[in-house]
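## retry 2 of 3
previous attempt timed out at serialization; input unchanged, resubmitting
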Amino acid sequence: MDSVRIETSIDYPTYRDYFLHQITHTKRMRLFFILSAVAALLMLASFVLTWSSGGSLTSWDYIPLLILVGVYAFYGIFFRMMTKRQYERNQETFTFQTEYVFHPEVVKITAKGRGEDEGLEVAYKQFGEVVETNKYLYLYVDVQRCYIVRKDGVQSGTIDQLRTWLKGGISGPYRQGKSKR
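## retry succeeded, writing output
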């Protein structure tokens, strides 16, 4: 097989998954999740030990837990609002069908449906990082530019062949991740 062809369009769930991937894979956010989980476990252990020893909990004992729950609730609401707003702002860009034709050393990217098809050729060595999840390939040129490729859009070729080409040609790491949904 001399090429792998994948057609992708970005709908809201795809964009939401990408946004979630971006947020949860930064070092600061991972640290936030780890520290808040540890804090929640320590509070829970404190509550259980106080209760099991016959002690009573005052309303002040619940304040740190309520703050933590409030932060998570705010984060969830904020996340949904931000992704929806970003998607709606850029929806015109995302609704077009994009065709990726991967060859052993380059990918040809064509955005269809804008009147004239816009084409672009990118060598694998230009990708600083590739992250593969259960559903997507995120091809990072840099921190600001990422091509989102849906794995369910394969028209010809295989993901295994594409994975081999990418691992051998990109300048940065090829990481396997998990989709959060």
